[in-house]
Amino acid sequence: MWVYVLIVVILAVVIAIGMLLYIRNIRKDDIKTQYVKLEGIQNLPFQDELVKVKNYNLHGEAQSLYSQWQSDWQSVLKHSLTEAQSDLDHAADDVEKFRFKDSREKTESANAKLEGVEHKYQELSGEIHQLITSNEEGERKYHEAERLYREAKRDVLANGHQFGEAQPSLEKLIETYEPELKTYEKQVNEGNYVTANKEIDGVHEELSILKENMDEIPLLIKEVQKDLPQQFQEVRFGCRDLKAEGYDLEHVKVEGKLSTLKGKLNLVEPLITRLELDEAREILDDINKQLDDMLELIEHEVKAKTKVDHEKDIVTDDLFMAKNMNYTLRTEIDYVKDQYHINETDIHRVQKFEHEIENMIEVYDEVITEIGKTTARYSEVLDNLDYIKDNIGEINGAQQQIQQYLVNLREDEAEARENSLLIQDRKEEIYRELLGSNLSSVPEKFLVMKNELDIDIKEINKYFQRRPLNVQYIKEKVNRAVILMNKYEQEAYEVLQEARLTEVMVQYGNRYRRDDADFNQMLTEAERLFRENRYKRALQIARKALEKVEPGAASRVEKEFDKQ
């Protein structure tokens, strides 16, 4: 037994040793990876990055930055890499002694320091790249600013007449940029690239704006001296022509507004002369807006007249059609109300429409009076016409419905009378058919239904004598009688058909009665039910009996019966 225990112990020891050796190999691989990383960081080409800066004037700010970057990198290499090297060496010793926890902690510490060095490299390289990019952009803007300066100076000298009285101010402003351009050159020569780049940014932006303003100044001068005065004249003369054609434009106040705008316009040219272009643009925008508002009001009047000319006759026809129809309705209601019951709501609506139409006729008279004047404000005329048009359309639609309602009263009464006569005739005709049929007697339900119809027709005929007649009520009562009549007719037809078909089947089956006692008994039962007016049940028994003695015979008999 102890042998097996010994074997288990030996195996456990071997496995434990194997695990330790395996873990040690893994840890050694991790440490080797960090050594490779350390070597790679030591070989980072930071000096190659610094060499790029040496192409500049290493004075002033450039020298300070160069020294600082070099110092920072050397400091990182001296401290962080040395400490990382020490951590890795100690980690290697710990692994050999199977102190894996201590080894892992030192390896992680070394890795953190190496990542810090890498981050510092990226940071310093980024700063170097940013300086180089800024210098290149500054140099580009400097050359661009020089070009803008020369072009601006040349344009003022060659085309001074385009700038008017703003020429001296422009020349003076342009000359202020020459010292600033020289300042940039001086700062670059002294190695102060950061300061130089900031200054040239401002100079370049100002010269770009100056170029845009110089392109705009001739246009502003043209707008002030020619375009707007010409528009003022066109508006003034155009309004005079429209007044001569009969337009009332007093509400536009053309002369007063043009005088105000002209006063504002006189303020613009001095602003242009002083190169206060933002203020000049603001005033010009306000002038153009007010001018557009005036033109919009004038155009509204012109469009209003066109619409008035187009819609006046249409509104006239609609208005007087409404008046005539209202008179017709009132006359017809006075005549009809003794004969028929009329909704009080419709009577009040017609009276209300009469007052509304009279009010609209007054508005229409004002429209005609305004149009007949020497000058008319067509926008107000159009508002009145639109008011009439919107309301008269609704009134005409409502009055047509009321007119149709009055026409329907007579038609509905005539239809109800005709239907009541048809019910009377058809009721008697069906009853005669029941009496003349092969029925043993008329079933009681038909006597009841006929009696109900007699009572309804009597009440309907009596109600027709009333005045004023409630057509809706009598129409509904007649419709109910029609429904009862249809039911009476349908059920009578079904009973007659069942009775006749029963007789035919009994007659056909008589040939089997002598030879088949059961069949004879079933037909006898069907005859008994027939005599008791139970025709549907009698037909069912006769059909069933016939199918027993001759399958398919009942269906053939029924088909032959339907053909008759």
UniProtKB/TrEMBL annotation:
Sorted UniProt keywords: Cell cycle, Cell division, Cell membrane, Coiled coil, Membrane, Septation, Transmembrane, Transmembrane helix
Keyword Cell membrane among UniProt keywords: yes
Membrane-side (Cytoplasmic) residue stretches: 24-564
Locations listed in the record: Cell membrane
Transmembrane segments: 6-23
Coiled coil spans: 107-155
Protein origin, superkingdom: Bacteria
UniProt topology in membrane: Single-pass membrane protein
Ranges of the Extracellular topological domain: 1-4
Keyword match 4Fe-4S: no
Family from the record: Belongs to the EzrA family.
Function: Negative regulator of FtsZ ring formation; modulates the frequency and position of FtsZ ring formation. Inhibits FtsZ ring formation at polar sites. Interacts either with FtsZ or with one of its binding partners to promote depolymerization.
Protein name, per record: Septation ring formation regulator EzrA
Native species: Salinicoccus sesuvii
